[in-house]
Amino acid sequence: MTNIGPYERHALEYDEWFRGNQFAYESELRAVRDLLPREGTGVEIGVGTGRFAGELGIPLGVEPSKSMGDIARRRGIAVLRGVSEALPIRDGRFDFALMVTVLCFFDDAEAAFREAFRILKPGGSLVVAFIDRDSPIGKSYDDRKGESVYYRQATFRSAREVSALLTRAGFRALAFRQTIFRSPGEMDGAEPVREGYGEGGFVVVRAGKRAGPGVISIGC
User: Fold this and answer.
1) Residue 201 and residue 84: Cα distance in Å, rounded?
2) In this predicted model, what pLDDT tens digit does every residue of 34-85 receive, in sequence order?
């Protein structure tokens, strides 16, 4: 995973962003909830400070940054220290896994998706929320990432690229939602959540691990 130094040093500032941009945070939560399975046991990969896991009722996360993980623990989340490309989790343990805005920091995104595939039960789901590089907001983030202490080393990807990576990792049945159509600083309320991608800067995709014979897939 890319250098976690900025997150070790600026964990509190990162966490405060969500408080200062409440409408954006609410919009992102709604988009994730729209595709997150409502039943089963889940884990957030790259749990950060626990802002999403805490609100979504996910009790366990994996996080490489000690500073970020400590804040997540204060929110009542159990945190395993580890990276997405080598998860400290046994095969087939979870019904679903969540990744929120961490894709752009992976050293090897396909390896991270293969690891997520490995830890899911047959019929399980991976839900990935990311900044769509091809959206207007995503293009702005990409153009100005050198100005950000967090995104300086980020590799933003388009929804089509993410789809291809998920498919190569073995996932099927992709479904998309999008939100954040204006800059967070311009919002006067939560943004709508729409199907598809291409306009919203924050895109969520749910991908399924095909169930074997006699196994029922978990839906939303």
Assistant:
1) 23
2) 999 999 999 999 999 999 999 999 999 999 999 999 999 999 999 999 999 9
Termini Cα distance of the chain: 30
- Distance (Å) of CA 114 to CA 75, 171, 189, 219: 29, 9, 37, 21
Give Cβ neighbours of residue 137 (< 8 Å, ≥ 6 apart): 131, 180, 181, 182, 183, 200, 201, 202
Q: 163-179, pLDDT tens digit by residue?
A: 999 999 999 999 999 99
The CA-based diameter of the chain, rounded to the nearest angstrom, is 52
Q: How many CB atoms lie within 10 A of CB 88?
A: 10
pTM of the model: 0.92
The two three-digit tokens of residue 145, written as one number: 């990432």
* 3-class SS of residue 152: coil
Mean pLDDT of the chain: 92
Single out the residue of 74, 68, 148, 39 nearest to residue 104, CA to CA: 148
Name the DSSP letter for residue 59: -
Distances in Å between the alpha carbon of 45 and those of 59, 81, 100, 143, 170?
12, 10, 8, 27, 18
Contact yes or no for 98/53 (Cβ under 8 A): yes
pLDDT at 217 over 50: no
Domains of the chain: 5-208 (3.40.50.150)
* Cβ(91)–Cβ(209) below 8 Å: no
Specify the amino acid at residue 29.
L
Q: What are phi and psi of 65, to 5 degrees?
A: -90, 120
